[in-house]
């Protein structure tokens, strides 16, 4: 931003599901630092939307719970429609300190970053529930090297990011998808340290078991996008080797016994099935790698 230039519209976007106990504090805190607050009421059955509206927030209502991915997708569309220069996303459960919003916005205003992540790990780990810490480490590993908190919901997006990013992931992997997409578009990503507060009952609305499964599936999907040959090619090669192993045993059994027995037939079927599975995985990895390479290169 040039000296003397007035920075444009800043909005705060808050995905919310049954957060009537905390939404007022988050909305009021955001209003101190942005021009407009947007609350995505994700099918809440309590007074979340009513409280947010009474406090002056614009509310996007959903009749049923759609999940974090759809919430962020809708909020990106809203930010584009408003022609916002900065969009801050923040959780509605009061785990983040709204006073940190200027800290996230500053690198964008100075032209140093397109996306700023509020990292809970730059200054040491917070008291995060164990299953969520494991989930974060898994998704950090398959998302971007050098980013310490790929799953933080407290972020700031500059105009370039708002205009270029529109997530499609519906599950908990949406935060990783956004960062992967940003990296492919050469958007600059920075992190600033924040402190998150977790309530006695936790902050996630998902059952820990379901949450972990959702993240594992998202991690597999994201890994297949970033490293298709590693994700599918290596297991495929392993299956093919296993198929060869069983094929050799099948031939040895047939040679030694001179007839087809139940055991010989079983080994033969295993060899065929495992080899076919390996070839399918290997070809899938090659095809995805080719597609991702073409996408990264763009039109000729």
Plain-language structure description:
The chain is of the alpha/beta class and 300 residues long. It has 2 domains: 10-226, Spore Coat Polysaccharide Biosynthesis Protein SpsA, Chain A (Alpha-Beta Complex); 228-297. 38% of the residues are buried. The chain has 10 helices and 7 strands. Helix content is 51%, strand content 12%. The chain has a 7-stranded mixed β-sheet, sandwiched between helices. The radius of gyration is 24 Å and the shape is elongated.
- CATH homology-level superfamily of the largest domain: Spore Coat Polysaccharide Biosynthesis Protein SpsA, Chain A
Question: In the CATH scheme, what's the topology name of the largest domain?
Answer: Spore Coat Polysaccharide Biosynthesis Protein SpsA, Chain A
* Residues in helices, as a percent range: 40-55%
Q: What's the number of structural domains? A: 2
Could you give the topology of this structure?
Layout: E1 10-16, H1 23-31, E2 36-42, H2 48-54, E3 58-62, H3 68-81, E4 86-89, H4 101-109, E5 115-119, H5 130-142, E6 155-158, H6 159-164, H7 174-184, E7 189-193, H8 208-226, H9 228-257, H10 262-297
Parallel strand pairs: 1-2, 1-4, 2-3, 5-7
Antiparallel strand pairs: 4-6, 5-6
Helix pairs in contact: 5-8, 8-9, 9-10
């Amino acid at each position: 931003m040039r000296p003397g230039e007035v920075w444009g519209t800043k909005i705060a976007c808050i995905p919310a599901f049954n957060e009537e106990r905390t939404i007022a504090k988050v909305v009021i805190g955001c209003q101190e630092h942005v021009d407009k607050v947007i609350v995505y009421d994700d099918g809440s059955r309590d007074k979340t939307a009513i409280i947010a509206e009474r406090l002056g927030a614009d509310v996007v209502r959903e009749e049923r719970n759609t999940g974090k991915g759809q919430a962020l997708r809708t909020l990106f569309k809203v930010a584009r429609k408003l022609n916002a220069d900065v969009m801050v996303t923040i959780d509605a459960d009061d785990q983040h300190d709204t006073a940190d919003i200027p800290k996230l916005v500053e690198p964008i205003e100075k032209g140093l970053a397109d996306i700023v992540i509020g990292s809970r790990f730059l200054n040491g780990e917070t008291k995060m529930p164990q299953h969520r810490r494991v989930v974060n480490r898994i998704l950090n590993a398959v998302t971007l090297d050098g980013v310490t908190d790929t799953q933080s919901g407290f972020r700031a997006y500059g105009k370039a990011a708002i205009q270029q990013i529109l997530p499609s992931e519906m599950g908990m992997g949406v935060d990783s998808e956004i960062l992967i997409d940003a990296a492919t578009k050469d958007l600059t990503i920075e992190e600033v340290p924040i402190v998150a507060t977790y309530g006695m009952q936790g902050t996630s609305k998902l059952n820990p078991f379901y949450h972990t499964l959702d993240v594992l599936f998202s991690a597999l999907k994201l890994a297949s996008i970033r490293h298709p040959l590693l994700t599918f090619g290596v297991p495929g090669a392993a299956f093919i080797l296993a198929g060869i192993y069983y094929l050799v045993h099948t031939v040895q059994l047939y040679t030694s016994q001179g007839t087809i027995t139940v055991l010989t037939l079983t080994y033969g079927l295993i060899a065929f099935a495992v080899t076919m599975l390996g070839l399918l995985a290997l070809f899938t990895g090659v095809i995805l790698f080719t597609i991702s390479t073409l996408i990264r290169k763009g039109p000729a």
